[in-house]
Amino acid sequence: MHPAKSVIFFTTATGAGYGLLFWLGVLAHRGLIKADFKFGLVVFAIAFALVIAGLLASTLHLGRPSRAWRALSQWRSSWLSREGVLAILTFIPTGLFALAWVILGDNTGIFAWIGLIGAVCSMVTVYTTSMIYRSLKAIPAWATGWTSPGYLLMSLTSGGLLLSFMAAIGGYWPAVDWLVLPILFFLACGFVIKLSYWSMIDRPIASSAETATGLGEFGKVRLIESPHDQPNYLLKEMGFEIARKHSKKLRRIALICGFLLPFVLIIGQWQLPSLAVCFLGIAVIVTMFGLIVERWLFFAEAKHVVTLYYDT
To answer: Is the CB of residue 55 less than 8 Å from the CB of residue 9?
Structure first.
């Protein structure tokens, strides 16, 4: 599929934003971080900015962005609609949690539970985003069990790294020490999931030009003449081509920057505490770069089965 910049930004930004909101709720519930006004104001501002900017960017890929609100009415059957509804509903507990933290200076008791509800809603929203693609059976690279876990793990790692960096700046070292342990685990799981996902999509799919046309009983089907003399929407949007050598190179970049380097940098901040803030800051930057490359590949390597008809 054509890797639109707006969709890449949407999935990366909202993933990090919701991941940040998730870990804020968890840390507050565990009493690892106090309701500091300046810290809360900055962190919640970044989290909501990422989420809102990502959601707005997603509408740019629509034919008529002004009618995006109409998609909310199809929540019974559409994962896109469910995502929109849940994204709006998630603002209720997370917004109340942010107000209690910043205005009332309290993130304990009932407010901690509200934050935890917001954390759960954040991950459910990320899951619905993944299901927009997971549910498309006509795109074999997306209709796989690896899609949703990949989205969730990358949201948790990017949001967690962002929060650990800001907590380190704020001097909340107990929170950092607790947070980096699950991040290391999720980085390792994400590395394995991406390798498994790429191994799966590299296998020949069961469908072919023969099964697509129903002419397989007569032998090998080949395209004698193109049905169009000009590129059409299907081929432009659903049949994006990427050279195999470029794909392998980009996969290595995604694995190194998105998973391996952050893992090493987190270990490094333990060994050199005086450089911990620097290491965590670099980890955030390389991780986001790696995830952007991974998102680009996620779309670029996915082909609609309609391309079988065109023998592409």
So the answer is: no
